[in-house]
Amino acid sequence: MASIVLENASVTFPVFNAASRSFKNRIINIATGGTILQEHGGHMLVRGLNGITARIDDGERIGLIGHNGSGKTTLLRVLSSIYSPTSGKVEIQGECVSLININLGIDPEATGRENIRLRAMVMGMSPRELKKRYDEIADFSGLGDFLDMPFRTYSTGMQLRLAFATSTSISPEILIMDEWLSTGDQDFKERADRRLKEIVSSTKILVLASHSKELLLNNCERIIWLEHGKVRADGPADEIAKLYFG
Q1: 211-232 pLDDT tens trace
Q2: 158: which residues sit within 8 A by CB, 6+ positions away?
Q3: What's this model's pTM, rounded to 2 decimal places?
Q4: What is the domain range of residue 176?
């Protein structure tokens, strides 16, 4: 069964060559939402997450809320194994796919077809799996002959279509998302929306960060509210949404 367990997990980032004057520290503290620490070496440390303890079990749909800089993206990256906690621990059971950076692994100089393979490798897809899904990914992108052109020649919409088609080609046990993905023309947006709904409905755990009350209430039963890297509230979606959104 899929599960996520965080025990007193913290993430601290060093900030080199930054002035340590108290006024600037206060400004950075406001801007980042993190906690400014001072190390003996003279450089500053920013604590993005501060002692997060939470458990997410099989079948749960979790929403993440909080102001910009509250720690949402840092937490998503920890759950996606992009960051490791600098203290505490996180245990993840189940195949996890992150949609917080769908362009990860993309090579601008490579063709669309080559980038399908590159992105699939970054996602952990085996050569056998890719062989089964390759034609479907190419067809879903709707790029046709442009798949043989370098990725850098694509428009922004075309780039996102290729990245989206590859990134959503598997149904993971755990899905990590930062907002709802939407790209391309109206026809592609409708197909993309249907595919996302199918993935969300089939995944065992969903973690979705969003600023949209409607999106969170439509997709999540539980919401975790982060503030300055800490959990301010954790409970039923309707109750926490009422506290946060008013």
Answers
A1: 999 999 999 999 999 999 999 9
A2: 143, 146
A3: 0.84
A4: 112-203
